[in-house]
Amino acid sequence: MGVTHVTVTVRNPGDSNRAWEGLFLVDTGSVDCLVPGNHLRDIGLEPKGKRSYELADGTEIRMDVTSADVEFMGDFVGATVIYGADDAEPILGVTALESVGIEVDPRSQQLKRLPATRLK
User: Fold this and answer.
1) Of 37, 56, 61, 101, which has the highest C-beta tally within 10 A?
2) How far is C-alpha 26 from the geometric centre of its chain's CA atoms?
């Protein structure tokens, strides 16, 4: 399997002029998005709480989270964003993808827009 990346803009919902853009790994095994914490702080976002996440190796960790506007492929969604390490690779999780009606084609590893967002 290949990897898929997409350019994503993360915006402060309280001040849309404060934003950060980066190249995100599309990870359908991740529920939420992960952004290097320094970029979230730079655009004025503060943690709103903590959530427990299970890593690929089964380890469970608690991480700071907030909400942000996440834009990609001409669309946006309000998403839960995890504060990653400052040098972490940004991750676009499956919830953001599905919320705007985009999925990964398993053969081509390309993102494709569905004719309609699934409501069921």
Assistant:
1) 37
2) 8
Residue 77 lies in a domain: yes
Q: What's the token pair of residue 13?
A: 């919902």
- Say if CB 33 and CB 89 are below 8 A apart: no
Residue-number span of the structural domain to which 64 is assigned: 5-113
Residue 106 lies in a domain: yes
Within a 10 A sphere around the Cβ of 82, how many other Cβ atoms? 23
Number of domains the chain contains? 1
* DSSP states of 4-22: -EEEEEEEETTEEEEEEEE
Residue 26 located in a structural domain? yes
Which residues lie across from 23 on neighbouring strands?
7
Q: What is the pTM of this model?
A: 0.89
Rounded Cα gap, residues 91 and 87, in angstroms: 12
pLDDT tens for 41-87 read: 999 999 999 999 998 899 999 999 999 999 999 999 999 999 999 99
Is 119 part of any domain?
no
Q: How many C-beta atoms surround the C-beta of residue 88 within 10 A?
A: 15
Least Cα distance to 90 among 74, 106, 98, 79 occurs for: 79
